[in-house]
Amino acid sequence: MSSEINVMESIYSENEKIADELKEELENKNVFSINVLGAPGIGKTSTLIQLIPKIPYKSFVIEGDIASDLDTQKLNALGIQTVQINTGGACHLDSPFIRDAAENLNVQDGIMWIENIGNLVCPAEFFIGEHIKMLIVGVTEGSDKPYKYPLAFEKADVILLNKCDLLPYVDFDEDFFMAGVRKLTNAPVIHISSKSGDGIDEAVNWILSVKK
Amino acid sequence: MSSEINVMESIYSENEKIADELKEELENKNVFSINVLGAPGIGKTSTLIQLIPKIPYKSFVIEGDIASDLDTQKLNALGIQTVQINTGGACHLDSPFIRDAAENLNVQDGIMWIENIGNLVCPAEFFIGEHIKMLIVGVTEGSDKPYKYPLAFEKADVILLNKCDLLPYVDFDEDFFMAGVRKLTNAPVIHISSKSGDGIDEAVNWILSVKK
Predict the structure, then answer these.
(1) Domain ranges of chain A
(2) Prediction ipTM score
(3) Which of the four pLDDT bands, split at 50, 70 and 90, describes residue A1?
(4) What CATH architecture applies to the domain A2-210?
């Protein structure tokens, strides 16, 4: 087992080293980077589509998916400069992927959004040069997610609680959810609907308040 | 990189070897095993709660979660014999976990349900001694999931499309979804609601038709 652990440690440290370098490069180019995390189908792309037009900076998007470029097609059709990463099978993005994609996008003076693989587990473990992690969860997922997937919540700088338009039709115990969140983090929790646009202004204001 | 690949290959082959042995042990004990896969909050536990009372065999449940035993508490409260596995941080269950849990449950003459970690990526890669894989997806996740997470669909023996009670309130393009599914698999797709119980009888009948 020790050789397995050594290999895993070396994968982590190589990832961290490149992520540190990348973050410095991004700062030199006046680019603020947001790592967007969340489960499959929780509305990461549709939230970006709501947020980006309201942000007074140029946006660059890196779309992470195991397969397909459906989201990149959507974003490009809206005039948002986007590059697709297909990981083949890998369950998270790592910093070499992001470094190459940022070069490909020729990022400068703006915000670089990284839509990570739809996965509430693995992506939370990897620093990929971002300034902040934005976690998107949803009322359709139930209120027990902070208890079951603590790392994603612990690491989040902001939590967007999406699909609030569906609240009348689902069983979501907000008190239980918030009690779980507050055991892990003091990050703000902003209620949004990526369908109706409700709450998006509040999320934009929060992003602008922390942007360097 | 070759040492990393060798280590990953040895992790896989050790897992497969134990899974093969476990499957044989389960057959000797007349136990049919179902590996339940799906994203976080898609209703894996609530579907088990609907299915199990309608199955005319004794059920044993292995609950996989990164943290917490909330689902095990729910199932035990209903009189369903359940054991919890907490992986700490690992994103999938592997066969040594299942072998130990099956021993702990003292399984014999019945169905062993394995609720895997909520994750549409990693669990699909690991054979853990099961007879069939049951994939649960939902109309709330959008219709593009087969295109983005192909392996989970490819490996599924049956696909339950859950949360159909929410169809009037979400944008779900069933034709696009089914076209994506049919590029990957001929597995049956059964519409269910783990809230209302709709479609559960059909899922039960399918399980009984394949049970050895």
Answers:
(1) 2-210
(2) 0.93
(3) very low
(4) 3-Layer(aba) Sandwich (3.40)
